[in-house]
Amino acid sequence: MSITTNFRLLVPETARVTARRLTESALATDGRLPGTGRFEDWLRERAAVNRFDVQRVPFADLSGWRFAPDTGNLVHDSGRFFSVEGLEVRTDFGFTPRWTQPIINQPEVGIVGILVKEFDGVLHCLMQAKMEPGNVNTLQLSPTVQATRSNYTGVHRGAAIPYLEFFTGRGRGTVLVDVLQSEQGAWFLHKRNRNMLVETTEDVAARDDFVWLTVGQVHELMRVDNLINMDARTVLSCMPFAAPDRSTRGVDTGDGFREALLASMAGAHGALHTTAEVLSWFVEARTRFVLGQRRIPLKDLEGWRRTPDTIEHVDEKFFRIVGVRVQASNREVTNWTQPLVHPVGRGISTFLTRRVGGVLHLLVQARVEAGTLDVVEAAPTIHCLPSNYRDVPPQHRPPFLDYVLGVDRSRIRYEVVQSEEGGRFYHAQNLYQIIETAEDFPLEVPDGYRWVTVAQLMTLLARSNHLNVEARSLVACLQTLW
């Protein structure tokens, strides 16, 4: 396998070699497993040889879980894994200054990591066909390792996690990426995971349910609904890339979109704002907004009710807490029960983009969420469940939501339904979109929004807790378009 191309390197000197090699892998759509058709056969085979069953059950049937008598919190007997607690939120962001809600409290830092190895001169990613109880389609493609600390330290008393040794301690490979990133602030309190990319030169065989794929093959699979899971997307988003020349493959819309995207990747040249100004805007947002978070007993929530099967809002909005019983023949533990967060509908996560002087800009918002660790994170232009706003006055609807809902479909550059964390959320899906607006779309935007280039967005992404998980998913989607 060989690839000949010229590279215009877009990253600091120390990352140039890694960026070049990852870009070569992104341009390779055949690898150890030839073509996406063969992958589909492999995935069907893995589904056929394993046994999966997930059933909704009442809370009384959750083994090892109980409602604490003093607080009403839903906790595990071990005191580990996670708990469902109450949270009181006070903020001047948005139009609701105070509310209470259930929240997942999982103070452990987990690991989500992809192992990479060179075959025939091209880097391949070791990906896993992983069953999660909340997945809408059971099996999705996950990172090599996707584990909470409770799991990888053996609290569940199950089998050891394959390939974990490459990501812990001194490890057995070269670390290419290692950064703490947050998870869904609407449902988690201060949750973070270690996002890692590690290269090995050892002779590593792919076990059952694992497969070596090039980055290009993974990017092609990003166009399939509910296939690349959230944890894989967030690690993929952290990969540094160089830009290939115009003769290499890419999504060519025939109107210069790809060239504008490459220019946006190239750096601050042609940007509306300097990178220092973007960072200053973000820091200012963290100091301007107020976010007060107070953990309270789950039994003291206002506007929420508990039934034998659910904890839900009285207006039937937002999300529910439900229980499930799980059987999975290929997991470290093959039988268990647990609670999950069940959103009331499908969300939308959209980046609006616009060309300015031939450079693609993305419209980012500084967003406060209930469980955010440091007040705000950079989020997509639109990031919401539209059903939550069905009876909200127009002035309180998210800016640009109505534009996105009514956009001319010819302006959609990427649109795929992707699942969120299946280990904690039940059938949680977002419609991920990248939309290019016309050049008469306003450059003047509300204070909580900024037009940034892709390079500037990657500067934020390289820092912990700057880009929320939905924005990182969209970065991974955007990476498939050049």
Automatic annotation (TrEMBL):
Signal peptide: none
Domain of life: Bacteria
UniProt xrefs under InterPro entries: EvaA-like, EvaA-like_sf
GO molecular function: lyase activity
Residue ranges of coiled coil: none
Residues covered by the dTDP-4-dehydro-6-deoxy-alpha-D-glucopyranose 2,3-dehydratase domain: 38-239, 275-478
Identification of the protein by name: NDP-hexose 2,3-dehydratase
